[in-house]
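Structure ticket #2291
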Amino acid sequence: MADEVLLLVRDVMSSPVITVKEDDTVDKVAKLMDEYKIGSVVVVKDRGEPVGVITERDIVRSVVAKDRLPSEVRARDIMSKPPITIDADEDIREAARRMAKFDIRRLIVMHKGKMVGIVSTRDLLMAMPDLIDIIVERYRAGLVRPMAEEEEAVPVAGYCDMCGRWSDTLVEVNGQFICEECRAELGKET
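Resolution: structure written out below.
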């Protein structure tokens, strides 16, 4: 099951993407966010090519906290760039890995060189019940079996529960996911 695709980015992404031009002012950006009840917009060039992302946090840090007038600040001046993208046909696990790697909460979804959506950590969290349902159904159908105690655990990627560092080789030990270095330290203690 480790190599099986459970859910694709296109299945959980939001579309259409609300966009602004590089020369648009931040007051326009904020009004669009309020109108569509969203936390970010994608900044695009004339042909619709994404060049950055503006989040509510960007507005607070780069405009409000610096006492700048939103009507005088351009999107290009506060956008996060370059935008991090993911293909629509990627597995959502890759989306989660990429978000963690770049410490971001949103990815621009591309298909055949065109922007088709945006996926956020919230979108991934909202997909969790569906993923659980898929796993339960596969288990009931006999397609997934519980791991025997003597089987070696398959490493996963994420943040170590002991040291907090990113690792591609986390293994569950007593209910915690622990990196190789911390497992070695545990081994020395016993």
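Closing remark: Strands lie at 19-21, 40-44, 50-55, 85-87, 106-111, 114-120, 156-159, 166-173, 176-178.
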